[in-house]
Recover the amino acids of this structure.
């Protein structure tokens, strides 16, 4: 375990925190959740630096990153790997500084449906995450479900669940007809079903399942439109999300799907497969549903939610995940490691 040291060793300086990550800057949507969280920490006076470790898919690049972070981290009080897999493996090379690891989902869960790249990649990612766990003082998971899985594998690990925050000032409920009009659909009486993924080709998101469920629902209850938000700039998502009537999530696995959080913040309920902590919400919220990965069942629940969920207040389920609240929890965690 890394030894503790006090940020006060540099008088008048704020705590210096290094975040390591391998989210490609050329794909800005992949960094959104991290950048939002970073804004929250800086607003609380943390001197935060985000260090991109590059493409870590080759042994040469991975070893290069390990050498780099070992040298680069010397002047920081806390180092926080923002992802498991190769990022965790590289960051584990740092010694003598408190280290935190965020486990987000695809660095722990594995893809089982089809043998190929994702089948092998997710297993290698999980192996590196598991191999790295003993090198970290604290493991942060984004959902209780992931926390339980990590605890089952590493019962002695120090684990805390802190989801990725969302900006509740941006994602707010709006009149859906007005939102549709602002998007160029005035007097639109269609009911919109939102599907959001960075890539429709990602087999973990299972867009073909979502499309089949939507088509069946449209045949049954009619006047629906599937609104796909793939690669939409994040600044456009608040209005786009608020214009929708329900979000459909068909993922095989998830940590805590940020698009579902954002939908809930806009009072948009979900119909989803059984991923993350969504079952806990569906158990107490009639307008939200968790279903088997069966297009007929998903379609039936879509129709039922669209018919009966008007005016549902689902924003309350993500209010504890506000940027301010979760930034405070993360700062408290860092302070506990350096004091």
């Amino acid at each position: 375990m890394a030894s503790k040291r006090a940020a006060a060793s540099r008088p008048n300086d704020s705590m210096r925190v290094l975040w390591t990550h391998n989210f490609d800057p050329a794909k800005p949507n992949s960094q959104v959740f991290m950048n939002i969280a970073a804004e929250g920490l800086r607003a609380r006076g943390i001197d935060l630096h985000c260090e991109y470790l590059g493409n870590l898919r080759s042994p040469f690049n991975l070893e290069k990153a390990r050498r780099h972070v070992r040298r680069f981290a010397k002047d920081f009080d806390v180092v926080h790997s923002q992802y498991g897999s190769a990022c965790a493996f590289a960051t584990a090379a740092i010694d003598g500084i408190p280290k935190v690891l965020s486990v987000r989902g695809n660095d722990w869960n594995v893809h089982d449906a089809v043998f190929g790249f994702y089948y092998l990649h997710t297993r290698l990612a999980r192996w590196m995450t598991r191999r790295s766990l003993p090198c970290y003082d604290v493991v942060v998971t984004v959902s209780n479900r992931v926390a339980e899985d990590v605890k089952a594998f590493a019962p002695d690990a120090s684990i805390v669940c802190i989801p990725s925050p969302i900006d509740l000032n941006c994602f707010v409920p709006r009149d859906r007809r007005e939102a549709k009009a602002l998007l160029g659909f005035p007097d639109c009486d269609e009911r919109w079903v939102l599907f959001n993924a960075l890539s429709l080709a990602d087999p973990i998101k299972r867009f073909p399942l979502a499309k089949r469920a939507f088509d069946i629902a449209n045949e049954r209850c009619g006047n629906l439109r599937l609104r796909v938000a793939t690669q939409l700039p994040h600044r456009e998502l608040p209005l786009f999300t608020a214009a929708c009537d329900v979000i459909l999530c068909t993922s095989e696995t998830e940590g805590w799907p940020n698009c579902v959080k954002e939908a809930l913040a806009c009072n948009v309920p979900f119909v989803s497969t059984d991923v993350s902590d969504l079952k806990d919400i569906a158990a107490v919220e009639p307008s939200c549903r968790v279903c088997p990965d069966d297009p007929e069942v998903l379609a039936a629940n879509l129709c039922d939610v669209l018919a009966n969920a008007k005016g549902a207040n689902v924003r309350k389920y993500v209010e504890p995940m506000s940027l301010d609240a979760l930034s405070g929890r993360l700062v408290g965690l860092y302070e506990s490691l350096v004091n």
